[in-house]
Amino acid sequence: MKRLIVCLMAVVAVMNVAAQSVYDFKVKDEAGREVSLEQYKGKVLLIVNTATRCGFTPQYNELEALYSKYKAEGLEILDFPCNQFGQQAPGSIEEIHQFCTANFNIHFPQFDKIEVNGPNEHPLYKWLKSQKGFGGFDVNDQRGKMMDGMLRKKDAAYDKNSDIKWNFTKFLVGRDGQVINRYEPTANMGDIESDLQMEMNPVLKNIMARRSVRKYLDKPVEHSKLSLVVRAGINAPSGMNRQPWIVRVVEDQQLIADVTNVYKQVNPEMVKRDKNFKNMFRNAPNLICVCTPVNGGDLDAGLLGENMMLAAQSLGLGTCCLGGPVRFLLSNEKCKFFMERLEIPADYKLNYIIAIGYPDEQPDAKPRDASKVKFIRP
After folding, report:
1. What is the pTM of this model?
2. d(CA 354, CA 358)
């Protein structure tokens, strides 16, 4: 019997490792029926372990407010009552559901009680925790400091594992079934709402998803897609609508190869260090060259470029804004043939080049310093 239990645990562990998204899991609903989370495919999910006798229980009001506000846009809140923290979720799921509807008028789905830590933890939570571990409490916040102190008294190293720490821990899951973020119970609901909006609003989501791509597939971008990207660019705002930019889109693969040969001759050691080197433009198959008047237009060109990079992102393309190749092209006489092909007017300069292509990497987001933003309020 012991061997059978060990084998079953091993099978469950393998299944958890193999899980690719939240849709791979089944749970029991409030009636005890097994249901697949695949039914929520394409939705934005906020998965919460809850309790009815906790100091954070009033968060049900905030959760219901979020659900009411964003349900039509595709939000689903999945409530999993859990009695593991201070025994604060007693009673049956029927009693819990009755309490929540009577006291907080909730409308989002509740599921059967589960365990989220330990040997009997639900596979869903094992996976969620593997995707986003514990990030710590904000000890500058009074509630965060209180939670940290309480848990550290019980276990000085409580923060070294990914376990759920208390009731009302939340996981934000995107429309693709992947975990976006984890929030501890002390997290500000306004911050959670901002993240929800970033995921549900396609424009905001596109902005947040864009990364500088430096590895590309060996596949040229279709002319139709390049045309869409440039069209989005030239619809950027400009001072007095002067539209001072000039754009050159390079689709000629041989031209890129020829100018790269010049680069190889000048920088043989740099090329040798990069075993994947294909061309001097981060190996991108296509280029967008942005030119501006010699006496200005840089600000307008920046707006143009951002429009194009965001448009490319929405079309499944990667981009990287390059300055180094521009300096090389302008400083090396042997690159004159490349510049001539661009047909840049004499009173214009090559400002920057956008490498564009199908990405062969998925870079993580780099940290952003929110402290540089200050709101001047009345």
Report:
1. 0.78
2. 13
Residue 6: pLDDT band (50, 70, 90) is very low
CATH of the domain at 267: 3.40.109.10
Judge whether 7 counts as a catalytic residue: no
Question: For residue 190, which amino acid is it?
Answer: G
Q: According to the model, what pLDDT value does residue 101 have?
A: 96
- Domain for residue 377, yes or no? no
Q: Of 209, 234, 256, which marks where a domain is finished?
A: 209
Do the domain assignments include residue 368? no
Reported as a single tens digit per residue, the pLDDT across 192-234 is: 999 999 999 999 999 999 999 999 999 999 999 999 999 999 9
Q: Kindly state the percentage of the chain with pLDDT values over 90.
A: 92
- Residue 81: inside a domain, yes or no? yes
Beta bridge partners of 75: 44
* 84: Cα separation from own chain's centroid: 31
Does residue 329 fall inside a structural domain?
yes
**Out of 54, 289, 321, 335, which one is annotated catalytic?**
54
pLDDT digits (tens, 9 = 90+) for 299-336: 999 999 999 999 999 999 999 999 999 999 999 999 99
What beta strand segments (E) does 210-301 contain?
A: 246-250, 286-293
- Which residues form the domain of 265? 223-357
Amino acid at 97: H
Report how far residue 333's alpha carbon sits from residue 235's, in angstroms, rounded to the nearest whole number: 34
- CB-count exposure of residue 184 (10 Å: 0-12, 13-18, 19+): buried
Please report, as a single letter, which amino acid is at residue 322.
L
Q: Give the residue ranges of DSSP H helices in the chain.
A: 2-18, 59-70, 93-104, 123-131, 142-154, 189-200, 202-209, 223-234, 253-266, 268-273, 298-314, 324-331, 336-342
Q: Report which secondary-structure segment, H or E, holds 266.
A: helix 253-266
Q: Which of 80, 28, 25 is nearest to 49 (CA)?
A: 80
Tell me how many domains the chain contains. Answer: 2
| Same domain as 22, residue 152 | yes
- pLDDT tens string 154-176: 999 999 999 999 999 999 999 99
